[in-house]
């Protein structure tokens, strides 16, 4: 608010001098908000950041209109969703997005600029804009941007993995799939698919085209790349299961289903081995327990009754949650196959089902125990951090709830919400956390997303027995 100050003049008359408070330009305010909420700085112990490449890239390439407009579209949309809620900001974000589309199309017609880091970053930001805003036309634009990312990654080839910025961009594009591509059910499954669609493929059984082959030595050196390769295998399992379970239960198909069960078991073992191979920086521990639900309302509770875990970095917690979700998906695929193989007997009496229910309970419990850490519960309980530290971002106060962890939580929480094994109380709590991510942190796709289902239901014998509802 302007401050009124009375001053004396030579004529002894009194006038009012209005001293205006300094006004921060909207673009600067939005940029700082975005960097403070999305740009995770690399952590000690070899932990990578997220979108941290944007900060140096914008400094040296800010003159490029497609990168500038794409960034400003995301920044203004994020600020408006989380804080401002103003129509004029919404219009400004959309105007920047429209300009980014036009200038990116121009950049793509330039052979040299097409392979530039700035162009891939701009297209990624266009995808992120759709995730942040969840507009009604977003599914159409999302598919277009994914196809653009696919073409760009293919055109850049394996050489993009030889530079830090190129590798960071590649990892970020794939991680975005783990974060939000499952939210758009109506994305055309006939369109070319990118590794960025990992989760979308898990939900719909889509065969993925990863664009380029990542060198094995790089895969096993980078936990995130190894995790993404395993995720792609889970997608392939889901695709094969979806195809087989839609066919008549002939002897040949039953044989293929038995092999698929063994593949799922082998996949689960690989996921376990990946967890055991992680460096110490990925470790976590329980620091508190919660037994109460305020007012008995699970939908508004910050913590689900049980243990509360702390991690050394947002990236570690998010990556582990994604792989926990992969274990849930892979084991659910196995149960679907076992159900058909044992029909008309009840699949819930099988050894496999007994084993996976234990797995589901443990993995879901670990995901829920990580949510307080990721959504800022510790910010007001710093004494519980002990020797741990909160993750650092590009600017702003690190002791505040951040948007990035919420974005990366959407996939594992959605996988749990849709699962048949999830209890009503857990589902109510999960929906409350997704609503918080959408309304308070500003990632609208958390609440506007369709609801894929992992509910097992019976089908006529000549068509198989299980189906994932869509």
UniProtKB/TrEMBL annotation:
Record's keyword terms, sorted: Nucleus
The protein, known as: Negative acting factor
Organism (species): Conoideocrella luteorostrata
Biological classification of the source: Eukaryota, Fungi, Dikarya, Ascomycota, Pezizomycotina
